[in-house]
Amino acid sequence: MTPRLFSFRWDVDHHVCVTDGLPRIRQVCSDLGVKNTFFVNMGKSTDLGEWLRGIGKSKAKLTDPNSVSLVKKAGWPRFLKETLLARPVGLSFPREIEALQSDGHELGLHGGMNHVTWSRRFDRLPDDELEADVRESHAHFQRLFGAPAGFTSPGFRSDPRVMRIVDQLGCAYDGDRIGGAPALGGAARAHLHWTIPVTVCGPGTVPFLEWHGARGTPDAAVLEALDPFLASNGLVVMYGHPCYEGVRAELLRKVFERVLARGFRFVTHAEVATKLQTSREAARA
Fold it and tell me: Which of 31, 108, 171, 193 lies at a C-alpha separation of 20 to 30 Å from 273?
């Protein structure tokens, strides 16, 4: 692979991601001439039944010191409104999301039709229910935006069932891992597509910039903390949510400017997958 490649992945989970984050991200990317990858949740972002069923987890998310809760990101009025209405995300904003494609950004598919169910009860979902959920989401995505090259699972919660479905849908890659190098077919290497991991992250699955935001780290210190990751000569992958990192456009601009100053070239995940496959085929020739 060409050295010093940088890819920023956005998980467009909630309505506030589209309304508050996407316009700012588009402006920063346009000003700097860079392209990003956006994984779109076509279904619900919140679910009252799931929140009540797992009330303990709900409370824990509100008080997690390592992350910024959705309530803080959206504010209580909008959080309650979306929880009660349970409106789908991608299906509610086709024009705003299609505008990302018009700008040259990549769109990918993010989970099925209920983000909270996947995040909280993934291990207990029956196989047929999981597959039907992903295929419904994929059908909506394809109808509106064309076939996605990539797929990511909510909360990085994935397993061989998801990998098999991703293969069957013809995706070139998934993004369901944190740490390590890209690999063909994930850890088991039993599948046909590439896994492109996030390489810069906070604890657990908390995005790097959100983790520092929750800790109150000054912008200058955040940029310094990023530098060791940018010492790499390979692929660097960060991720975030438009409702948090996207809203903080000033810091986002500084991060992107620093990446460019370190000699990295911005690429989409689809471009990474193509380069990986080309390199593999050349090595086998």
Answer: 31
C-alpha count within 13 angstroms, C-beta hemisphere, residue 278:
8
**Does residue 248 come out as left (phi exceeding 0), alpha (psi in the -120 to 50 range) or beta?**
beta
Cα 23 to chain centroid distance, Å, stands at 17
Tens of pLDDT, residue by residue over 231-251, are 977 899 999 999 999 999 999
| Contact present, 248 and 209 (Cβ < 8 Å) | yes
What Å distances lie between residue 150 and 16, 161, 193, CA to CA? Answer: 23, 16, 9
Q: pTM here? A: 0.94
Helices and strands (H, E) in the chain, number of each type: 14, 9
* Residue whose token pair is 């909630």: 14
**pLDDT at residue 1 tops 50:** no
In total, how many domains does the chain have?
A: 1
Q: Which domain holds residue 191?
A: 5-284
Torsion of CA 8, 163, 201, 93, to 10 degrees: 50
* CA dist., res. 117 & res. 90, Å (int): 17
